[in-house]
Fold each of these.
Amino acid sequence: MITNTKMISFQDHSGELGHLVAIEGNRDVPFEIKRVYYITGVPEHVTRGFHSHRKLEQVLLCLNGEVKIRVKTPQEEETVVLNDPSKGLFIGHMVWREMFDFTPGAVLMVLASEYYIEDDYIRDYGQYSAEANNFFKE
Ligand code: TYD
């Protein structure tokens, strides 16, 4: 996985009655969950995202269907396929993300470490490259 990303597997309490997955902040994900949002009804061929965050950390889960997530730093790039509601993609600081190939009925749920703050977004790729090159230079 690229820098500042990882897959997290959650316990799936499954049986004849179906599946139940519980996610506890600071335990199953490495932050306190301050916000939850979900994305549904994305038409085929639409790509969303195209941004990074300076401070926000997130875990993305696809609760139904399938969606692809392209994650990038200036040095690395990877595409993660989410199609298992018991697996989440953690995205840490300063990772660029694009979400695409939503299947019909796909539900993408996001757990977030911060409230919504537009100033935390970097939406311009040139600005992102400049800040990220500095951030990842150790
Ligand atoms: P945005 O994060 O740009 O969506 P995506 O990256 O998936 O394309 O958000 C889309 C709109 O929703 C934008 O106008 C901001 C608003 N929004 C909120 O008001 N609160 C939130 O928690 C989020 C994630 C977005």
Amino acid sequence: MGVLVMINRPSADAAAHRPGAPDFEEADPASPQLSVLDLAATRGDGVFETIAVGDGYPQALDHHLRRFASSASILDLPSPDLAVWRRAILEVVDKLGPLPEATVKAVMSRGIEGDGRPTGWVHGQQSPDHTRARTEGIAVVTLDRGLRHDVERTSPWLLAGAKTLSYAVNRAAIREAVRRGADDVIFISSDGFVLEGPTSSLVVQRGDTLLTPGIELGILDGTTLGSVFDFAAEEGLRTGYAMLTAEQLGEMDSLWLVSSGRHAAPVHTLDGVPRPFDSELNLRMNAFLSRRQE
Ligand code: PLP
């Protein structure tokens, strides 16, 4: 069931604060906490972050909080009071106790329709075991996302680049991958450029360089990716951003899908074709990601 904290002061905006209530308070995750009128439930209208916790330390917390605020801004939601959210996340981490790996999810919805007050909560629980994906790798298929690479600029109302609660499409893409005998997906723009996974960022290795598509392609600013680039600096590898086509993926030395909970999952098969990956580098990358204490 994990640990749940409901946020009474999701935004610094006074109208968002439940009068007389503490900034946040622990609640029973086994009991109903959300109104059926909440826009989280009725429209998936809100934003979230999933933060990895390793040995009691929330990883890349500053980056997650920055992205949380950025997503809220893209959705024209009230700006989250990051000091309150940080304290609530740390409290949940603390209450989870000494687990080797956990994840904490922070959610802010537009609240009950017409109320004008966002709903917020933070829930933490033990992570599933990702050892197999991290060590043996995953099979991935490329799928057309159906949007051009410049969608963020041409159609900002599509909310590209925001981590919204509307993940039904992302889950549908993963089910399609499973139907095709794979584990995960790399989305391709309708005009042929490589983007990201439904719940992960893409990192490719070409020689002594790690590359990733840039966020101007309407993809998320990955926090794990940021840590992978820190790892690259430690390894003496170069890093950069690239617009890659699906065909070019086949020419890379290694591919990974990286994300907060699973860390780095090397790709052992792409669209049914087996691929190599640098397993030593992969082990060091995952060790680095597991060790992070900030
Ligand atoms: N891209 C998408 C669409 C995601 O949903 C996620 C994480 O859930 C990521 C990228 C990776 O982000 P992070 O490394 O911060 O978990």
